[in-house]
# Entry
Amino acid sequence: MLSVGALIIAAALLLLMLGPASWNCFSAHAGAWYGQLFLFAWSWAFAYHLSNGIRHIVQDFGHGFSIPAFVRSSWTSVIASLVITIAIWVYVLSGGAA
# Structure
């Protein structure tokens, strides 16, 4: 998911370089329901990767290796990624990204 999102961002930058007509075509697809769904899923995958990476850094320092701590940190990664994703989309949909 993250790789496909990176390719789409690269393609978007190329379309932006090609001019307004190409960019408007991309924007129309990104603004459609399937584009918004993809962008939401991509931002969640990015946030999950970030929060799980932080979890692994903490484990590299020797913390959280018991089974209850491991399960707790796994759920914390999932919940943190959802919170980050919702915060990003609240900001975007409230016009903060405009």
Summary: Helices lie at 2-18, 20-31, 33-60, 67-93.
